[in-house]
Design a protein that fits this description.
The protein is mainly α and 736 residues long. It contains 29 helices and two strands. A hairpin with a 2-residue loop joins strand 1 and strand 2. Helix 27 crosses helix 29.
Length: 736
């Protein structure tokens, strides 16, 4: 490739005519831009004409043009000048900012799924608002603005610092650091909210994202300079960022500095997103959708992408705000829910279209391997020198157990790991039964377990603590096994049931069943919601065998829809009911007992033997499908069985304790490190998951005096650093 070919598409040697295809491409972009501008203007006029106050389009036009003395009317000044006009301009500015930020993130990470939440900006802004509410009593919109902006900037600065320590702020490190830090910040936010009804009451409406609180130009005017700087930086960085798409080495050869480019992009994204979140709260999905659609229209021309992404974001947010005012009159729907309901089907339709390959949405299996060959083959680590094939002959790491004519090959390392994990699990159970707010010695605890001793001790241990422990054991074992199955199917250590929208689907189903039936905790609701979610994801993405971006996009869309349903259900309930349900949606074992654990225990009794029976086939699935078939395994059949097992287990676990994060991710990773890389750690994942949930619940009960932290929040706070360690570690096996 010559230097003249690398330059921007618009640059042509003097005296030469642009190719016909390029002219047509430019015309298509100009046509799309013109249509978008017209659409944004129409939506803006509609936004000014719709809303409370019974002020029609004619009165609005008179006020804007200053005709017929309209500006002397106090009613028009209030409705149009103080409410509708600032709200419309805020929607346009925030939509354009989020669309531009999403486009920049997708370009710098070379990932069409990149979204503004990737840098931890939304999580940092949420934490800032909660800190302001909880500790300083902030209650005004301007106070939210300051604390949200400060939290967002702090989160982005930390992400840049973590990502640049090794690897020079590469796209992957930026994304992973943002995800891990966002999870930790989200957990800390939940810690502050879950034990304060007043803080939660203020936060639950702000976190939905809404323009209903926009009054006057004070808030918008204070952040216009920040937004302006963000837009200017985005346009100035477009050309160097286009060079970065060619690769770091070629970008350096063209005189650019990749590390500096990424830092500047991160600064621009932070300014745009932080100001937007401070103004209207966290609005997810918009940046992803706008950048995605802009790239579908413009192709690789980044400057055009940025402009179109801004227009698309402005139009989508303004139109969604109009719908939010009219779909549930006299109430107002959260605008983020409208965007999720509108954006998810559109995004799925785009991913299903033929333009997917041209947009970079290719299956990783079809991409070039690091050595330059085509195709990526799944490789398993080689056995240590001196060992033989364990599955056939036995070896140094295999113990042969014989009884008459029967013999059994027991992997020595896996067996030792299983015994060690069992001992650790027993210790965790003893610690959980002993630990608590009451003064009880270890000997009294053991006596109470067996029904002897003080009656109060027996009641406390047997009725409350042991029932809770059994529920935690069942949920943790189910999550650990579900994570093991999902990661093996996806051939990816980072794959969890969340990838398929299972957790969010199960959570939404449980809340809907509670709303419709008036009773909470129906055991069937979680598995049913999980099954619906995975059926939708697999059907839309093209089947269980699909890998790569298509499944990720559809899973993300499914999670967004289910989360929107969950947030709407919580916002419509009374404060007391919503507070208790929020604790459960954070992942909690509070009040859980033997009765809720029984369905999961029955499920485990059926599903665990099935998982063990297909364990040998799971080992073969870690290779590609053709290799597995040559080994006598039917990949489609095994994948279907394992997927149903994982969905059932995850759904049952959500029914017990809500969506507990990171257990399904961490359990197979830890179990695999202990048992060795040559086999799927089915039993180890089950034991590790049960141990982690019991330990996390114990920490949540004793960490703060008189205050209980739900198990899901503990696992999230601790899981963020663990995720960072797994993803940014030296081992190539843990990389995506």
């Amino acid at each position: 490739m010559t230097v003249s070919q690398v330059g921007p598409p618009e640059v042509q040697p003097a005296g030469q005519q642009a190719p016909v295809g390029r002219v047509h491409g430019n015309r298509a972009v100009l046509t799309a831009s013109a249509l978008l501008v017209v659409g944004v203007l129409v939506l803006s006029a509609l936004s000014l004409s719709v809303g409370a106050g019974e002020v029609g389009a004619g009165d609005v036009l008179d006020y804007v043009l200053g005709r017929n003395g309209a500006r002397d009317s106090s009613r028009l000044s209030l409705v149009v000048g103080d409410l509708r006009l600032p709200r419309t301009l805020t929607a346009l500015a925030v939509g354009a900012a989020l669309g531009t930020a999403g486009c920049l993130l997708q370009a710098v990470t070379r990932n069409p799924l990149a979204e503004t939440g990737l840098l931890g900006v939304n999580a940092g802004a949420s934490l800032g608002v909660v800190v302001g509410i909880a500790f300083l009593g902030v209650s005004s919109g301007y106070g939210y603005l300051l604390w949200a902006f400060g939290g967002a900037v702090l989160a982005s600065a930390l992400v840049l610092l973590i990502a640049s320590r090794r690897g020079g702020g590469s796209p992957m490190r930026l994304v992973l650091a943002g995800s891990a830090l966002g999870a930790t910040f989200g957990g800390i936010t939940s810690v502050l909210i879950v034990n304060s009804a007043e803080t939660y009451d203020r936060f639950r409406f702000w976190v939905l994202g809404s323009l209903a609180g926009v009054e006057g130009f004070t808030k918008l005017g204070s952040l216009v300079p920040v937004l302006a700087v963000g837009f200017v930086v985005a346009l100035l960085i477009a050309r160097p960022l286009s060079a970065l798409a060619l690769g770091d080495d070629l970008a350096k050869g063209l005189g650019h500095r990749p590390g500096v480019i990424r830092v500047v992009v991160a600064v621009a994204v932070t300014l745009l997103t932080a100001a937007s979140v401070a103004l209207v709260g966290p609005i997810s999905f918009l940046g992803l959708l706008a950048g995605f659609l802009a790239r579908a229209v413009t192709g690789p021309r980044l400057t055009a992408q940025i402009v179109l992404a801004g227009l698309i974001g402005a139009g989508v947010l303004t139109g969604s705000d109009v719908l939010a005012r009219v779909v549930s009159r006299p109430f107002e729907a959260p605008v983020s829910v409208i965007i999720a309901l509108f954006g998810a089907p559109v995004l799925i339709a785009i991913v299903r279209s033929r333009r997917m390959a041209s947009m970079g949405m290719t299956d990783p299996a079809a991409e070039e391997s690091p050595k330059g060959g085509r195709g990526v083959a799944a490789r398993l680590p080689r056995p240590r020198k001196g060992t033989r094939d364990e599955g056939v002959h036995g070896g140094a790491d295999t113990l042969v157990v014989r009884s008459g004519s029967l013999s059994l090959l027991v992997p020595r390392r896996a067996a030792v790991a299983a015994f060690a994990l069992t001992a650790l699990l027993v210790g965790a159970v003893v610690l959980s039964a002993y630990a608590g707010q009451s003064e009880m010695s270890l000997s009294r605890t053991f006596s109470a377990v067996f029904g002897s001793g003080d009656r109060f001790d027996v009641l406390l241990v047997q009725k409350f603590r042991l029932g809770r422990i059994v529920a935690g054991l069942a949920a943790g074992a189910a999550l650990g096994l579900a994570g093991c199955l999902t990661q093996t199917l996806a051939r990816n250590r980072l794959a969890t049931p969340e990838l398929l929208g299972v957790n969010d689907g199960a959570t939404a189903a449980v809340l809907l069943s509670a709303t419709l039936s008036g009773t909470f905790g129906a055991w069937w609701a979680g598995p049913l919601g999980a099954l619906v979610a995975v059926l939708v994801v697999t059907a839309v993405s093209g089947g269980l065998g699909q890998r790569g971006y298509r499944v990720l996009v559809v899973g993300l869309a499914m999670s967004a829809l289910a989360s929107a349903v969950t947030q709407v259900v919580l916002s419509r309930r009374s404060l007391n009911s919503a507070s208790s349900l929020y604790v459960w949606t954070s992942g909690s074992l509070n009040g859980r007992s033997y009765s809720v654990a029984v369905p999961v225990l029955i499920g485990l009794a059926v599903l665990v033997p099935l998982a063990l029976a297909v364990a040998r086939h799971l080992n073969a699935l870690r290779f590609d499908d053709s290799t597995a078939a040559s080994l006598g395994v039917a990949p489609g059949r095994v994948r279907l069985v394992c997927m149903l097992l994982a969905v059932g287990l995850a759904g049952l676990a959500v029914g017990i304790c809500g969506p507990v994060g990171f257990i399904a991710l961490a359990s197979p990773v830890i179990a695999g490190r202990l048992a060795g890389p040559l086999r799927v750690p089915v039993v180890g994942s089950l034991l590790v998951g049960a141990t982690l949930v019991v330990l996390a619940d114990t920490v949540g009960r004793v960490a703060l005096d008189g205050v209980e932290i739900p198990v899901g929040i503990v696992s999230t706070v601790l899981g963020g650093p663990f995720l960072l360690w797994v993803l940014l570690g030296r081992s190539a096996a843990t990389r995506v």
